[in-house]
Amino acid sequence: MIGFLLFSIRRAWQGFWRNAVMSLAATVTMTLMLMMLAGLVIGLSGMDAGLRFVEQKVEVQAFVADGTPQARVDALVAQVRALPEVADVQYIDKTQALAQWQAQLRQQGKPDYSSDTGTNPIPASILVKLKDPHVYGSVIQTLQSAQGVVTDVLETRHVVDALLTVTGFLRTAGVVVLVLVGVTVLFIVVNTIRLAVVARAEEIEIMRLVGASDAFIRWPFIFEGMLVGLFGAAITLGILALAAQPIGQAVATVVGQVPIQFDQNLGEQLVAVVGVAGLGLGAAGAFISVRTYLIR
Amino acid sequence: MTTTLLRPVRQLAAATLIGPRRQAVAPHAEPVTDAAAPRASIALEDVSKVYPNGRRALADVDLVVPDGDFVFIVGRSGAGKSTLIRLLIRDELATSGRVLVAGRDLRRLSRREIPRLRRQVGIVFQDFKLLPHKTVRDNVAFALEVTGTPGRQIRPAVERVLALVGLTGAADQYPNQLSGGEQQRTAIARALVHEPRVVIADEPTGNLDPLISWEIIQLLLRINELGTTVLMATHNADVVTALRRRVVALEDGRVVRDEIGGYHREY
Fold first, then answer.
1. Within an 8 Å CB–CB cutoff, is residue A212 touching chain B?
2. Nearest Cα residue in chain A from B192
């Protein structure tokens, strides 16, 4: 078994370099495809993180008109809390709201001029947390119908919907492009291995005549296809590792306001996805080639 | 199939069997394979081969080659020699009839078993079929490598067959550095390295001048003396006539002569 593996891997290695131009072309195409795959994974992961961030935030925020009697506010809060869709209702008065806003400014390192005005421009608000972030029921209407109490209602529904649309589009478009590139890669691997088979036609004939089993004839080619995938994956992950730092910084500058928390295991996920995709595609292409050109 | 057709095969099989088994064989009692299989390297029963294009390459061929025999197959180009050899190495299946090699019915051989059969049948071609970028030693070792022989067994086996064919001194040379005769001896060493039961040589002297041809024949004879069955397809009338061995002549896919003796001029 070990002898078989050594033999197959040695021959795969020889085969890879025997037709280096074609093998490297296949590897570059494979790398390109895996880069797109990695990009899609990262993009979707970021979108998911953004979505999660938005969803876990307060879903509905109603700003309370200044000078509203506390009794009316309490009545509205009680009314909203009674709704079946609502998980929690929180009332933030003007002082708390100002304090939160100032805290946010400090966190972002921006100067705070609010103390200069002498008044508090920040309105009080009612924060509503929904049981299911997608089910609003009559929460919005209830808040909006409280004439004189609520000046404006902010809902994250639009933001969530927009994010969902973008994520959905990205996912669909990404998968379509990925499948197209994947098929191209498959064809290139099939062709590369076919050339390897042709280059070894004489050897294969001799192997058959001296009684080599099918495994000894086929597996070196499958390993050769996997080698293309392995090299492609290694190059892709190498480029990603080198690019991670600068890209991360660029992203932080652009969306620094939103504390998006990427999945902690994104790195491992990328290694797994890119590695499996590369090896799988290489092996699949080689397998098709071997089936088509070697079976007799 | 009719017993009358098979009778000559049975009788031949019985006649060529040696040892205690011989008494046990009653010509009419047992089917030929049961008696012949353990002791015949090759047995063809009423074999026909029709190619998909309709060409009939072999017709009703009966042939038994006992273990240790040396047989010439003669006949014009297109007489069916190559087809016969391809049937024997299970490169093709007979259209009808049975082909037994080393005791195995080739039609019943599963895909997995074909390689194992081929290790029992060493084959040598007119064009040597050596790998140009491998040395003599590596060409021979290749046959063991690709059949999963453990590395430590390869070297001694290769040295042994190289000594047998007299190529120990040329082991590190490449095929293009060798004479035709040496190349053919390399091919013979490769055919022998699995210690096959049968060596099939398809026109082994076809590309060689007469003197070198005799070297190759001498080598095949020595291999035969060591106990390996040798089946050699040839056009070389001088060799066939001189050796006085069993000669099977094919014509239009039929066996027209099977006897000890010379090469008839018309082939």
1. yes
2. A210
Q: Residue window 215-234, chain A: list those with CB within 8 Å of chain B.
A: 216-217
- Do residues A91 and A124 lie in contact, with contact meaning Cβ atoms separated by under 8 Å? yes
> Does pTM top 0.80 for this prediction?
no
User: Hey, are the CB atoms on B147 and A211 less than 8 Å from each other?
Assistant: yes
Tens of pLDDT, residue by residue over B194-251, are 999 999 999 999 889 988 999 999 999 999 999 999 999 998 888 888 888 999 999 9
Q: Sheet containing B70-74: give its strands across.
A: B121-125, B198-202, B229-233, B70-74, B246-251, B254-260
Q: Which residues of A touch B194 (CB under 8 A)?
A: 210-211
Q: Check CB contact of B131 with chain A, cutoff 8 Å.
A: yes
Which tokens go with A188?
Answer: 């290139």
Interface pTM, i.e. ipTM: 0.80
Pairing mode of beta strands A124-130, A60-64: antiparallel
- What are chain A's domains? 2-54+161-293 (no CATH), 59-155 (3.30.70.3040)
Decide: B118 and B199 in contact? Cβ < 8 Å. no
